[in-house]
Structure formats: structure tokens, C-alpha cells
Amino acid sequence: MGEALREHNAGRAKDARGRTRVEAPARRPGRAGATLARAFVLTAAAALAACSSNSDRGASAPRAPSQTAQAPSGPQPGAGGQVTLSGPARVALLLPLTAPDGGAAAAARDIEAAARLALAEGAAEAIALDVRDTAGDAATAATAARAAAAAGDALVLGPLYGANADAVGEAVAPAGLNVLAFSNTPSAGGGNVWVAGLLASSEADRILSHAADKGWTGVGLYYPESPLGRVARSAAEEAAGRHGVALSPIMPYPRSFEGIQSTSEAYKAAFDGSGATTVLLVDEGQGLQAAASFMRYHSIGTRAPLLGLGGMADRELQKDSSLSNALYAGLDPQAMADFSARFQAAYGRAPGRFAWLGYDAVAAAAQMMRAGRASGDDRPFGVEEITDPGGFRGLGGPWKLTRDGGNMRALAVLTPTASGPQVVGPATMPSAPGS
To answer: If 352 and its partner were Cys, which of 104, 110, 144, 202 is the partner (CB 3.0–4.6 Å)?
Structure first.
């Protein structure tokens, strides 16, 4: 399942699809003044139209009576759907419940279950879910999204696949709706779409900030020749620059046992002459296990622990000796264990790897809806609310959505053990600029 779903990180150049980033129609003067601000704009527009002069034609030239200024037809881009503040807001949940990929369908069921758990734990007074099947297909996802908008849904949660997020965003843009996709593909965000999955940018920032704190200012990078690897390399290079870490040597490898075996010796030679203290491994699954094993074989990771990203959170790899004493960035394990226990109690089974995304998305929507009620804002899912600098409280800690369509999450530094991850460094928000 992890291999199929990690298509999330299929890295494309940012905005290669040609989408224009949605800005807020006008920055609201705080949530409390949102409704009055909209009324004032329309009143002022009418007054200005009535008072505009015809001075270029002569001061006293007669003119026809001015027409009353009309309000813009339809919602403004990114304004969010309109809600009734006295009841819960309708929110669409788009998931590949009948996808041919069994792993994706299982993840979809987990995300839906976690979303309903969030409702049961308090979000139901603010949010009413409208669950719709995408079948893992972009066209079906777009059709489901248009139907949700027509039914009065004010926000879209999903889809799961980053490759389908663009179609969903375009489908609901005419209605002014915004989309929080479950993808962790950075390039899937932009326009009226935000990605809510755990991003390599947050992971790389946290683990390399920890390396800098420890004085490991020389760190190598050994990464797979894959979309995942390219995204991780970019994230690591940016994070290394922010934290004063020299990222060298950098070497890709073909993602196969033979490819890792054949390149690891060359990497060893480059590493020994670089002055680096340790290496950052950004793969997952069997690729990560093989890469870590060959690094150990070549005595890399003996002076300082091997470093990694979210791939080291794999439950099976936690027990593997190749990752003994390694360090990686991840969500607070105690908080996630608490969520797992509540999920198990509710459904009689453990949550899958991506279930928590459904809970966090519904909790964030509920937080925005409650803020809208408090301020009298009947469009609580607009750009300003989604990108509120105060962010949201997630299962694993604070997180926020950024203006570029991405997100930032507070992550801890963890080490894998046979009994599960142990905290080495506290959860902190990335230092990357987000606006």
C-alpha cells in the first residue's frame, strides 16, 4: 500500500500546470468584520458609480441617469462556500472507496473512519460530511466534486491522489470552493487546492535542524532516482541552506537492490573524502532497508546516527537492525498512539498509515466553522481562514496551510525501536518561510 500511495510525492515543477495561485479577494479586517466588510464594499461601489463625473465631456453636459452598480455575479475565487451559521456546514469528503488499487481503497476507508471519529469526538456540531466516491479516477473525482458543489457543500476534503487534485480544484472553482487534498505531492497544491499530507519539506527541515544543533554540519545525501527521491532532494537542499548544513556528497541510485549495491561503494569513496559526519536517507520500504544496510556495511553512520525522513516510520522497519539508532522526523508518537487506541476502540481494528489525515482535516474544518460562527462570517472556508497564521491543532501537534498550497507541521525527532518510535527531540514547527 505504501508504494502505491507514495505517488503523492511524484514531483513536478511547481505550477507546471499553469495554474494561477488564488489570493484572497481582499484581506478581511479580522474575522469579526468579515460580513460588514463585504456589505461596505458593495455599498461603496454603488456610491462611487453614482458619483463619478463626466468632466472630460464638459462640466454641465447632461447625462443619462446612472445605473445601479451590480454585485459581481457568482462567488469570488477562493471565497469558500456559503454556510448557514446556525447549523453544521456541509463538507464534501472525496475518497477512492472503490479504487481498483486495493491499498488505496483500504486507505480511503481508514480516512473516512477517522473523519467520522472526529465528528463523534466533537466536530459534528460544526460539520456534516457528504462522502462521495472518486474510484481513484480524475474524471470521476471531478464529477463527484461538481455534484458536491451543486448540493451546497462549502468545502472539499480530498481527493487522496495528488494526480486527481487538479481536476477537483478546477471542478469546484466556479463555485468559489477550496480543496484540502490528502496528498503529500507538493506540486498538487496551488490555486484553490492545498495539500494536507505530511511533506518532505517539513521532515527535512526538522531532521537537518537537529543535525545542525548537534554540530553535524556536514551531511551526505543518498537518494533514489524516483519522483520521491527528487522531491526529497529538493527539500533537503533547501533545509540544509537554512540551517547551515553542507549537504555533500549527493548521489542518486537506481531503486533496486542491484542499483543500491553497485552505487554504494562509489558513495563510500565520495563520503570518506567529503568530511561529512553522516548521511540522510530519504527512501522508504525495501529501498530504505537496502540503502541503510549498505551504509552500515561501509561504516557510514558510525560516528553519528543515520538520518531519515518519514519512510523510517514504517512499523516493520522500526524493528530492522539496519535502522538501529537512526534518527528521523515524525509526528508525536504518544499523540498518535492515543489516536490509534481511540480508533481501535471505535472500529475494532488498528488505523492504517494515512487514517489520521481524515481526522485532522475534519478537525480543521470544524475549527474554521466555529471561528466563522463567532465572527458572523458565513463563508468560513475562504483563503484567509485556510491560511490563518495561527493554523490548526492536529492529532500530532500544530500545523498550518500556506499560501503556496502546501503545509507546515510540527515534527519531533524520533529513533526507531522494536517497541515503536521514541522521542529524541521535541516537536517544533519548520523554520521554512510560510505565508
So the answer is: 110
The CA distance from 63 to 60, in Å, is 9
SS3 call for 401: strand
pLDDT of amino acid 73 = 57
Bin 160: left if φ > 0, else alpha if -120 < ψ < 50, else beta: alpha
The pairing of strands 327-330 and 411-415 is antiparallel
Q: Is the distance from CB of 172 to CB of 145 less than 8 angstroms? A: yes
pLDDT digits (tens, 9 = 90+) for 202-228: 999 999 999 999 999 999 999 999 999
pTM for the predicted model, two decimal places: 0.83
Q: Which DSSP state fits 61?
A: -
Band (pLDDT 50/70/90 cuts) for residue 432 is low
Q: For residue 124, give the nearest of 154, 80, 157, 87 by alpha carbon.
A: 87
Pair type for strands 397-401 and 327-330: unpaired
Q: What cell numbers appear for 411 in the block?
A: 515534527
Say how far apart CA 301 and CA 277 lie, in whole Å: 8
Give yes or no for a contact between 356 and 339, defined as CB atoms under 8 angstroms apart.
yes
Tens-place pLDDT, residues 267-277: 999 999 999 99
Spatial distance between the Cα atoms of 336 and 328, rounded to a whole number of angstroms: 16
Question: How far from chain centre, in Å, is Cα 361?
Answer: 10
Q: In CATH terms, are 80-197+336-401 and 200-330+414-428 the same topology?
A: yes
Place of cell 484567509: 384
CATH topology of domain 80-197+336-401: Rossmann fold (3.40.50)
Check: CB of residue 15 under 8 Å from CB of residue 113.
Answer: no
Residue 289 CB neighbour total at 10 angstroms? 22
Q: What is the CATH number of domain 200-330+414-428?
A: 3.40.50.2300
Task: Output the average pLDDT for the chain.
Answer: 87
Domains of the chain: which residue ranges?
A: 80-197+336-401, 200-330+414-428
Relative orientation angle of helices 285-297 and 257-272, to the nearest 10 degrees: 40
Q: How far is CA 357 from CA 2, 346, 364, 412, in A?
A: 15, 17, 11, 18
- Over residues 362-385, the mean pLDDT reads 98
> Which tens digits make up the pLDDT trace of 411-422?
999 999 989 999
Geometric angle at alpha carbon 415, from 111 and 251, rounded to 5°: 90
